[in-house]
Predict the structure.
Amino acid sequence: APAAQWVESWPDDVGADRVRRAFAAAYPAEDSDDGDAGAPEVRVYAAPGRVNIIGEHTDYNGGLCLPIALPHRTYVALRPRTDSIVRLASAQEPGAAWTGRLEDVAPGAVTGWAAYVAGVAWALGQHLDATGGSAETLRGFDAVVDSCVPYGAGLSSSAALECSVAVGIDDVAGLGLAATDAGRATLAAAAIRAENEVAGAPTGGMDQSASLRCAPGHALLLDCRPGLDPARAVEQIPFDLAAEGLALLVIDTRAEHALVDGQYAQRRATCEAAASTLGLANLRELADSVIAAAAGNPGGDAAFAEALAAALDRLPDDVSRRRVRHVVTEIARTQDLVSLLRAGRASDVGPLLDASHASLRDDYEVSATELDVAVEAARDAGAVGARMTGGGFGGSAIALVPAERASAVADAVAGAFARAGLGAPGFLLAVPSAPAGAC
Ligand code: ADP
Ligand code: MG
């Protein structure tokens, strides 16, 4: 059987060193805008990818999700310029260096990976213009990126890139936003705008909030209700896996599926139409009322099922009924999982992870063969629970495993992939890690 391929994270000094050396190679001293003498120093920043424990396809429904920051980070070496020029290079995008001017960056004006970086500068400029400052306080910069966050694996390499740049611009421009959680919420909002409006990816807000606002040893309970005060939207939930003898194994299926973007937009549209049929602003309002019907009710499960069925009866077709059932039950599972973590019962969350997977596979229909093989093989090898994570149709799965079983479970999953004729997956160990910051 093939051995599991592990994707190691980089210690901060290793990541910082790589990106500094790449910076020196990309922008030799004589090439800098004012020569060597008096040139500002190169500073290094990093931001993590994330993995969501539970609460999938709930963010855009105003629901709850529960990401942690990965130990895998994207590093950016950045040197401010005196003009408005931005020069970018990435070790992950050889041959695709980019140069532009800040005043030319806008939705639709930048294509390719540079949109995630230039988009953050644009969005922060918009923020300054809207809050009594001026986008013109932002100067250009030279930057080089390198990363150990797997690409396109549902672990949010895009937010890791945006948020490393966001804390970098914040620092060199002296905005001071990264110093407080409220300021970090502002940086997250800018990164979300960069991704939605400049890179053109219509994702929810979980990834950027996780990358900027997570804390080591904690999961971030993120309440995505629109208009909620950012300070009230997050809560740190202790998630000390090691203390409970557990490890969180991430399985990057490395599966590539077409049509993913269209499917995501379709799910969103179905949920929005269902909410409007029910006369609600979003499906979170339905979840809250269904959960309230069960709360404090002896036989709460039956009351929950009855209240949910009554709402589903008002929807016109089976597909929207199943999509809505996923969203409502997933929000309830997220609350239940948080209650278990608060009670120090992390090892009891397995059935909730398993139920989340079944709901995403059967009701929301966003799983894929690779994800189903991964979770079943992990459970067979001793995981306490497993589920697909992220948007679906490929990407990654998570398995909560007794710590001493982590490598055996990974080997078992690698073997199951080989027997099923699937390409080799990658494996990460997800310890809840630090948010974006300077190195
Ligand atoms: P995910 O966020 O799940 O990894 P996305 O499709 O949202 O997948 O984001 C991946 C895209 O983000 C890449 O195609 C690239 O454009 C950009 N990106 C992410 N990390 C980097 C990086 N280190 N260097 C350059 N571009 C990056
Ligand atoms: Mg992404």
